[in-house]
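Structure ticket #2291
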Amino acid sequence: MVSVASVARWWFGWRRMRALPESHRLGRRGEELAERALRELGYSIVARNVRCAGARGEIDLIARDHHTLVFVEVKTRRRLGLYPAHFAVNRAKQRNLLRVARAYRQQHSERGRYRFDIVSIYQPDSPRPQIEHTKYAFREVRYWHW
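Resolution: structure written out below.
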């Protein structure tokens, strides 16, 4: 039996998705495909679309791979272009992701291992989208200043 609450969630979620601009719908579709692909690889999804106070930016997915916390940036493209999608995660984007991850780890008292992955998705509306998962895409580097 279907509950009224589940029908309402579906209806209002669908209407909200329809009202989004095309680029946002493409991104949401990519995040759904990335989440499904990570689950198939054995990851457990901890959170989606995470923003933290005091840090600019958003982390698309936070997952757990055994004992490692994985911060995932999802890049979705309609087609394979001149450059791979993960090239869009430049230094500035990496700094923003690092800030949000640091704030998240502090707020949730996460002290264990963590890493940053990028999931690139091409042709998300086709029956067989191309999904590329880059583990350890970048890392936090701390420099000592003398």
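Closing remark: Helices lie at 4-19, 22-40, 91-107.
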